[in-house]
Task: inverse folding
């Protein structure tokens, strides 16, 4: 009886393996579409296209990028969430993917439950920059200056409820200062223009867009917002090491598949993407953009996205940030 049970168990295991979809075992057998929910030319698009090209080379299939901008990335993300879970439609998105749920009451998808995380591509630090005429050199001096200022100190951002805006709100909370006034702009470029002109005094900005002005001396970099110093600006300290322990904010970029995508395909894609981020030429291109390559596992990325969702929800609630 025992032997018969063992035979049945072995047969059952074999049937379960054979029941795994043959198309998943043969993956990929046709072109893959990568949806990028922002216009061409932005950081999400640039990083996504670098990875798509390498993924095509490694898988031996065409990987086609399809830009579907709109609604802070939610239009493209919704398309992927509703795509067949077969690994042939992927999403490359920024950290707004886990910020949006705290900003929009109604969404057609769940940013966590409706996706299978594949890998974190890269982490792009935000940098705290000030107008050179501002009489501060460090985070501590900046906090002290803001606290004694008789008028509110204006900090710019690329828009309401963007990562730079929320990083500024988090800075206010961590430093215990209220005398900072948010001034939103429609993008980083006009915000930097006013910062250079002195209409605003400080800004949390994506490192790639501020870096040329920092290197030319047109702006003064005070600190970066990540846990580690940026390899692009190694002499600039982090906000955490400048006294606000635990401060860690950045814009990061990841890849997702629709939920219920077979584990075999998820692991294959995650492994390939991770290896791509470690290729010397890819690392060089990422770092030139101010992006620190990551390339973690599907499991680690899943944990990370949930942690980020909780963190940003807390910041949004505490700051009262809202979309236009």
Result:
């Amino acid at each position: 009886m025992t032997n018969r049970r063992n035979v049945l168990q072995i047969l059952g295991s074999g049937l379960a393996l054979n029941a795994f979809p043959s198309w998943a075992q043969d993956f990929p057998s046709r072109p893959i579409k990568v949806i990028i929910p922002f216009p061409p030319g932005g950081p999400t698009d640039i990083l996504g296209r670098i990875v798509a090209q390498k993924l095509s080379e490694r898988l031996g299939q065409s990987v086609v990028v399809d830009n579907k901008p709109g609604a802070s990335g939610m239009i493209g993300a919704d398309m992927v969430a509703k795509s067949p879970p077969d690994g042939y439609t992927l999403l490359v998105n920024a950290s707004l993917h886990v910020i949006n749920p705290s900003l929009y009451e109604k969404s057609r998808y769940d940013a966590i439950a409706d996706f299978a995380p594949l890998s974190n591509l890269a982490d792009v630090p935000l940098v705290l920059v000030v107008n050179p005429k501002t009489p501060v050199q460090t985070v501590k001096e900046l906090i002290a200056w803001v606290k004694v200022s008789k008028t509110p100190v204006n900090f710019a951002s690329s828009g309401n409820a963007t990562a730079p805006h929320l990083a500024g709100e988090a800075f206010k909370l961590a430093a215990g200062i209220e005398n900072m006034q948010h001034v939103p702009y429609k993008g980083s470029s006009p915000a930097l223009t006013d910062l250079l002109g002195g209409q605003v005094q400080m800004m949390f900005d994506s490192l790639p867009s501020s870096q040329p002005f920092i290197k030319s001396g047109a702006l003064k970099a005070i600190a970066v917002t990540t846990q580690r110093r940026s390899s692009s600006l190694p002499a600039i300290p982090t906000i955490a090491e400048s006294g606000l322990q635990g401060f860690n904010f950045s814009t990061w970029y990841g890849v997702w598949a629709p939920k219920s995508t077979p584990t075999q395909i998820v692991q294959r894609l995650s492994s390939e993407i991770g290896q791509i981020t470690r290729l010397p030429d890819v690392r060089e291109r990422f770092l030139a953009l101010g992006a620190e390559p990551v390339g973690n596992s599907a499991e680690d990325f899943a944990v990370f996205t949930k942690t980020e969702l909780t963190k940003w929800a807390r910041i949004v609630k505490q700051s009262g940030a809202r979309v236009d």
Summary: The domain at 125-224 is CATH 3.40.190.10 (D-Maltodextrin-Binding Protein; domain 2). The longest helix spans residues 298-319. The chain has a mean pLDDT of 90. The beta strands are 32-36, 63-67, 89-94, 115-130, 153-157, 180-184, 202-206, 220-224, 250-258, 292-293.
